[in-house]
Amino acid sequence: MKVLVVIGHQPPGSFNHAIAETAVEELGTAGHEVVYHDLYAEGFDPILPADEIPTDAQLDPVVRRHCDEVLAADGYVIVHPNWWGMPPAILKGWIDRVIRQGTMYQFGPDGIVQHLAGRRALVVTTSNTPREDELQLYGDPLENLWKNCIFGMVGVEEFTRRNFESIIMSSPEQREGWLEEVRQLVREIFPPA
Amino acid sequence: MKVLVVIGHQPPGSFNHAIAETAVEELGTAGHEVVYHDLYAEGFDPILPADEIPTDAQLDPVVRRHCDEVLAADGYVIVHPNWWGMPPAILKGWIDRVIRQGTMYQFGPDGIVQHLAGRRALVVTTSNTPREDELQLYGDPLENLWKNCIFGMVGVEEFTRRNFESIIMSSPEQREGWLEEVRQLVREIFPPA
After folding, report:
1. In this structure, what DSSP letter does residue A22 have?
2. Pair B57, A10: CB distance under 8 Å
3. How confident is the model over B67-121, as pLDDT tens digits?
4. Interval A24-75: pLDDT, tens
5. What is the residue extent of each domain of chain A?
6. Paired sense of beta strands A33-38 and A105-108, if any
7. Which end of chain A has fewer CB atoms at under 10 Å, N or C?
8. CATH number of B2-189
9. Using the beta-carbon criterion (under 8 Å), do A85 and B145 form an inter-chain contact?
10. What pTM was estimated for this model as a whole?
11. Contact of B140 with B103, CB cutoff 8 Å
12. Secondary structure (H, E, C), A62-87
């Protein structure tokens, strides 16, 4: 399989990076072809300009490449921290620019045509809010955003999400356990060919 | 009152701009002091760098000014389209960078200290999804994000949101009616001194 891994978090050496690198490693071990994007490291520009909205717009080559990679992939691994119940702006802008109407989905006479149908996705997020508070106070917005608003829109129905918390309170042993869980999830969702 | 108006949408001449300009006009008529930010027009950089996270970080002067304006304001009007159940990345990044821990809220021994308590907010959003679908399929994420995750976190309890839809299907008469509704909402929430 071809799997696209995207991380939207700043500092190299962060636990988010450990998660993404663990996923990349496990995917490689399973024999999959991996495309990896560290949006901060690459300086991805998250601002969708007005002239990029038309479905026949002349695309920035970087955005064009991202679109082609999304279309060519059999699955996705997304890694980011929970900032205000949403991804960091750099990843929000990757969604705005890359998950394009007319490319990833379009409105047809019989409803929405979903061009990513049949793909699978794993979204791994991190936070410091206790799980109970996240569910009771905020309703865990990231679950709905990724599952229904984003991947649901483009036809990715095989969807798994795992949130690790609290990062700030975690021990090295706990974090090692979480990385092991990432390895297991990756093996289950993207089994060796 | 001092009121901060922030719009996160691209093209001048859009209905979002008409909403924001209507709010600014009505606030001025009511005798309020208005600070207006069109994030796209100003080229606001939405990417939070790692070294800006510490509460004692040396801030970019633009971010410092935005923070000062948020703290000095008695209320907020936010205007943006619904993109994937979230604000456009440029506005998401304004939240990431400006609604800073240690400035707008902080974790104290007795819980969260909310530095924007007592302020009021009006969030006006636009979309093309029929209202029923938005509620049933997606749960209207913007309501929860703005009300609970963002403004609730910093103590803004007097919160009003209005979504106008479907923009793409609307007639000029309908849009004029919506702008009149914006005028009424602004008058109610920010009455003349």
Report:
1. H
2. no
3. 999 999 999 999 999 999 999 999 999 999 999 999 999 999 999 999 999 999 9
4. 999 999 999 999 999 999 999 999 999 999 999 999 999 999 999 999 999 9
5. 2-189
6. unpaired
7. C
8. 3.40.50.360
9. yes
10. 0.98
11. no
12. HHHHHHHHHHHCCEEEEEEECECCEC
- Residues of chain A whose beta carbon is less than 8 angstroms from a beta carbon of chain B are 10-11, 40, 46-50, 83-90, 92-93, 95-96, 99, 137-139, 141, 144-145, 148-150, 152-153
Dihedral sign for Cα A48, A53, A55, A59, please.
negative
- Report chain A's terminal Cα–Cα distance, integer Å: 8
Between β-strands B75-81 and B111-114, what pairing exists: parallel, antiparallel or unpaired? Answer: unpaired
User: What was the ipTM of the complex prediction?
Assistant: 0.97
Of B6, B26, B19, B135, whose CA–CA distance to B73 is shortest?
B6
Q: Give which of A124, A192, A184 is closest to A160, Cα–Cα.
A: A124
Which residue, among A40, A44, A47, A129, would best test binding to B if mutated, counting the most B CBs under 10 Å from its CB?
A: A47
The encoded tokens of residue B89 equal 């990345």
What DSSP string describes B124-184? Answer: EEEESS-HHHIIIII--HHHHIIIIIIIHHHT--EEEEEEEE-TTT--HHHHHHHHHHHHH
